[in-house]
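DM from R.C. (forwarded with permission)

"hey, sorry to bug you on a friday — could you get me a structure for this? deadline for the figure draft is monday and I only need the backbone to look sensible"
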Amino acid sequence: MSMIEPARHFGLLSVILGLALAGCDTEKAREAARAEALQQKTDLCIEHLKPSLKDPYSVKVFKATVSPGNPNVIAIDYHAKNSFGAYMPGEFKCEIVDGKVDEGATRTLNAIARLERETAAQHAYNICLEESNANLARGEAGRDCQKP
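My reply, with the result:
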């Protein structure tokens, strides 16, 4: 093997390593751009949400995610103060179109989310009642089911 052979392998290794590192930088740049876009959309959604809160300046965002089915829809988990000054959890969904909140779509998204939560609570209540009735039929104590 001549002296040129190891040098050629080293050169090839350097090119491969350089391309791999460039790919990492590109991926980091893409991730940073996605995070910045999410933050901008979240800020728009929070500004839209604030007028409906008792203390608009108390809102604290805990999680914001992009909908897997629609990259324009942002789901936000937050806490904000209620009338008594206690922080309460909340959920808000928002659709951004052309850099603005789509009011109709956002209203619809939140109405659907509210109905899904209410349906889940009613389902849990119904299961509790069924179990309570089964206990009573066996002569056992019924359960204390909280109506949603």
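R.C.: lifesaver. The longest strand covers residues 87-97.
me: no worries. Helices lie at 4-49, 103-137.
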